[in-house]
Automatic annotation (TrEMBL):
Taxonomic classification: Eukaryota, Fungi, Dikarya, Ascomycota, Pezizomycotina
Designated name of the protein: Tachykinin family protein
Compositionally skewed regions (Low complexity) per UniProt: 63-88
UniProt xrefs under InterPro entries: Fun_TF
Record's compositionally biased regions (Polar residues): 42-54, 110-120
Annotated segments matching region Disordered: 36-132
Length: 610
């Protein structure tokens, strides 16, 4: 059944949430709104709640001070419902019908909850949450990204082991398992319930529930392909947590089986004329591509990337894709990320789509969004300071990196627009500004010489410090991030604690690649909620480290071999962080994520052109 305004999807993480009274109330309200909207569209409707033919007693109650709402409040509160547009278009023809509908809506909302009292006696009509109200915007309070259950830390069971969920069957209705209706893999050893629980825990958000879940439920391969992302992510995280000499030589059997199953389902859909170019199949290919991005196998990833690009072309371009524009946006962001990690240029159709997309300037008001040194308000950071003291070492370092980015971007723009005679002068001015800021970045103190409240804060600072110095060296030397990383590695000035025991007693690693040092620092930070209000910073750190991990410069940015050893393990780790951040942030702050990858790609192109 196609997803539309008639349907309200409810996504839960355990059976108990199906009996949540607030959610049940929203369901009843949604059904009533839908019914009234359909009745209002029938000229012959006899429902008194629609045509306004009520008894005199009801009319008196509708106009009494205790139950009357002003028209502006009522229009706002129901304007986001599925039937508000209909009631407004009929207003000129039948104002009595509109008044009756508003009163019926008010009674439906007041039936199960009493109104709050304020300075006057008028009840407060609560707004209904809709997908439209969440596009690219963040609330001013709470977590930057709310998890699918209201927050990644809202429920203790989200931190338990997968085998402990669902809970013990000691309650009424425990014999009913609503998750039995989920599609299943052909491979019976793959437990969809457990795998999907892990997927929602790592990648779930309210934005995904609003925008993406209806598309996932449209086809089996679209739904199950999400598990390819989470299984790849979890396998990489488990491997990275072990010391180098204790890791398995190959990926987990579960991850390989999931990928095989998803690939098989996609191949089957491609042989079906009705499904081969559908949104569901494109969603499945997009999921598989994100999983392969974490695997860092360039040949396989290039195959899926080219296949997805061909599907977009066959559909008539990105603007012709469905899922309310989300499919085109997510596809474009994914292609940009691949280009960033491979230090190449995105395809022209994706550049044009990103350039023409309407970017919501959410950074021009007070609402939070994922800030980073490459995407921030002109006045400085605001969201980051919700969790990071403005006068602390981390904030000071981020501010220096923001200033460095501004000098480089503005200087590059002036250099490009200047005449041939003045370009050398513009370049010298930019170099002076860059060196002045970069000197302070390279003079920043290592984390082990500073005091922090906990280990996570300490290594959050250290990951930012190493990344900022790598970023600064690339900008002042005007070389790609991978080349800048090789030059810094040759200095031998960096060291970090190796993975394994998450304590300061682990042995040091010295003389290794820069993205390994960044990985080692990230391993000791709390990434459960992607650094919370600093999620944009984590995304930027992973993008820079991922580009620095690019193994070699090759035609098209791809290599025909796979690196082995710790370099490859760290490369996969930072790619997994990139993919997770892009998904978690992309459905909540799509425009900000789009601007982030566009800014990062522009900086990379400027490093080559200057």
């Amino acid at each position: 059944m196609p997803a539309g305004k008639d349907i309200r999807f409810v996504v839960v993480s355990n059976p108990d949430q199906l009996r949540n009274r607030a959610e049940l109330r929203l369901n009843r309200q949604h059904v009533m709104h839908n019914y009234l909207a359909k009745e209002a569209s029938k000229p012959t409707s006899t429902d008194a709640r629609v045509n306004g033919q009520r008894s005199e007693g009801r009319r008196k109650r509708a106009t009494s001070p205790s139950t009357t709402t002003d028209s502006s409040t009522t229009d706002t509160s129901i304007g986001s419902s599925a039937s508000s547009g209909l009631s407004r278009t009929r207003a000129d023809k039948n104002s009595q019908t509109q008044a009756g509908y508003r009163f019926a809506t008010f009674r439906a909302e007041n039936a199960s909850s009493s109104s709050e009292t304020s300075g006057d006696s008028r009840p407060k009509v609560r707004k209904i949450r809709t997908a439209k109200s969440r596009i690219g915007l963040g609330s001013t309070g709470g977590s930057l990204v709310a998890g699918i259950s209201g927050g990644f830390r809202n429920y203790t069971y989200l931190g338990t082991k997968a085998e402990e969920v669902p809970f013990t069957p000691d309650r009424l209705g425990s014999g009913l398992d609503p998750f039995d209706c989920w599609p299943a893999f052909d491979e019976t050893s793959l437990r969809v319930n457990e795998l999907k629980w892990s997927c929602s825990r790592r990648f779930g958000s309210r934005g995904i529930a609003d925008y993406w879940v209806p598309a996932l439920l449209s086809a089996r391969h679209a739904f199950l392909s999400t598990i390819a992302i989470s299984s790849a992510h979890d396998d990489i995280m488990r491997r990275s947590a072990r010391p180098p000499d204790e890791r398995p030589k190959h990926e987990s059997v579960q991850r390989a089986r999931v990928r095989q199953e998803v690939t098989s389902m996609i191949n089957q859909s491609m042989s079906d004329p009705q499904m081969q170019m559908s949104d569901a199949t494109m969603v499945a290919v997009l999921h598989l591509l994100n999983a392969e991005m974490m695997g860092c196998d360039d040949d396989i990833m290039r195959t899926h990337q080219q296949g997805l690009s061909a599907m977009v072309t066959s559909r008539g371009g990105l603007s012709m894709l469905g899922v309310n524009g989300q499919l085109a946006g997510v596809t474009t962001i994914t292609m940009y990320i691949i280009a960033i990690l491979r230090e190449t240029r995105p395809g022209q159709p994706f550049i044009e789509y990103a350039g023409n997309s309407k970017s919501e300037t959410v950074w021009k008001d007070s609402r939070p969004f994922p800030e980073s040194p490459i995407l921030c308000r002109s006045s400085g950071y605001r969201t980051i300071h919700n969790t990071c003291a403005p006068d602390g070492p981390t904030s000071r370092l981020l501010e220096l990196t923001r200033q460095l980015t501004n000098v480089f971007v503005e200087g590059s723009a002036r250099h490009e627009d200047a005449s041939s005679d003045s370009r050398s002068e513009q370049l010298r001015e930019m170099e002076v500004g860059l060196f002045a800021v970069a000197a302070n970045i390279f003079g920043s103190t290592a984390a082990e010489d500073l005091e922090f409240a906990n280990m996570s804060d300490r290594y959050t600072y250290e990951a930012i410090r190493v990344t900022s110095q790598l970023f600064a060296h690339a900008l002042i030397s005007r070389v790609p991030f991978s080349q800048a990383a090789q030059q810094l590695q040759a200095t031998g000035l960096y060291r970090s604690l190796q993975p394994g025991p998450l304590s300061t007693d682990a042995p040091y690693m010295e003389g290794c690649a820069m993205h390994i040092h960044i990985r080692n620092a990230l391993m000791r930070t709390d990434t459960a909620d992607c650094w919370g209000h600093m999620a944009g910073v984590l995304f930027w750190v992973a993008l820079v480290a991922g580009a620095a991990a690019n193994p070699e410069v090759a035609p098209g940015g791809y290599v025909h071999r796979r690196e082995s050893g710790e370099d490859e393990e760290a490369r996969k780790f930072v790619a997994a962080i990139v993919v997770r951040c892009s998904i978690v942030l992309g459905f909540e702050f799509g425009s900000a994520v789009m601007e982030t990858v566009k800014s990062m790609s522009s900086i990379q192109q400027a490093l080559v052109q200057v």
